[in-house]
Amino acid sequence: MPQQNPNIPAPFVAPFVTPFVTTAADGRTLVPGGSVYRPPSEADSLLLQVSVGCSHNRCSYCAMYTSKRFAIRPQAEVEALIDAYARAQPAPSRRVFLCDGDALILPQARLVATLSYLRQRLPWLQRVATYGDCRSILRKTPAELRELADLGLGMVYHGVETGDNQSMAAIVKGSTRAQVIEAADRLRQAGIRHSVIVLLGIGGVAGSERHAHQTASLLSRIDPPYVGALTVTPVPGTPLYQAQQDGEFVLPDLWQLLGELRTLVAESALTNCQFASNHASNYLPLRAVLARDRAEVVRAIDAVLAERDAGMLKPEWLRGL
User: Fold this and answer.
1) Is 76 exposed, middle or buried (0-12, 13-18, 19+ CB in 10 A)?
2) How do strand 274-276 and strand 287-289 relate by DSSP bridges?
3) Contact (Cβ atoms closer than 8 angstroms) between residue 177 and residue 164
4) What pTM, to 2 d.p., does this model score?
5) pLDDT tens track of the chain, all 321 residues?
6) Domains in the chain with CATH codes
């Protein structure tokens, strides 16, 4: 990680969960309080909170935005924060990540205005990225997505979670397998890279095999350049946690979770994908280019499954969200 620029408050080069309160020289709050989430790969990016919370905010496993009511930040506040970044010398980062949960849901005119202002004030920027989902992607026409790409939007991180329609409905994802395919096709046509997140264990014990096979087949169909596998962790206060407490959801054990990971790796026909399971929630950290490394990765997982030695895996105390 680069050294923190003294002109940029510490939250802007931040942990995965960021206590995020910053004020301007005149005392105005530039960033609303609360926690801001971003992908681990955006650790060095400037965080630009263009919205607060998540417009869907109903996924049964997610507690990230339950304390926030969705709102779009006034454009004047967004531009004031961009101006603060522009004044920092040397340039603090060449990337920007648009927060919060699904910033792509903003109206096209607002996104165009923000991206245009970023280009004007931060001419050194190389890429802008954001979270998105099927709802926000499919609200944009192909021409609108192409316009955003031309203005610098280069990556959309998409929590697909599963390729199984039954599991999608159970977790109230708000999308279907067919919509994921359409969204992926639309991003590809616009020239925006698609980074897909899937959740090991989200189908529970009963749906484990179906979830794994259907997710592998969906990944093969949409063929994203990046896939990250995380392990579901029921968080107190979420519907999924309550379902677990009531016995309605049973989380697969670590060997079943590794079996799901093996299925994803073995069955996903990905042409040029960087696949990672190195998130803190996972038991077996992996990083590979599957078209090249698939056989080696499958052998590594098989070796762990054959031994059934938990000592070969990340200990519980090192796991987290």
Assistant:
1) exposed
2) antiparallel
3) yes
4) 0.88
5) 233 333 333 333 233 333 333 444 455 555 555 678 888 889 889 999 999 999 999 999 999 888 888 999 999 999 999 999 998 878 788 999 999 888 999 999 999 999 999 999 999 999 999 999 999 999 999 999 999 999 999 999 999 999 999 999 999 999 999 999 999 999 999 999 999 999 999 999 999 999 999 999 999 999 999 999 999 999 999 999 999 999 999 999 999 999 999 999 999 999 999 999 878 788 888 999 999 999 999 999 999 999 999 888 887 767 776
6) 1-132 (3.30.750.210), 158-313 (3.30.750.200)
